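Below is the record:
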Amino acid sequence: MLEFALGRAQWCASCATAGGEGLARSLHVHELEALARLTFNPSLQRTASPPAEI
């Protein structure tokens, strides 16, 4: 299902006509790609917390 959503999001992004619309759809594609990487390769998940701000 995730692969289908990613494919559909990529298709929608390629059809976007306005700049803002294209950026929003591109962001959605990147979010789905990150989710797919974590889903199919669990070793990429963060195990440590991010560094504290100074």
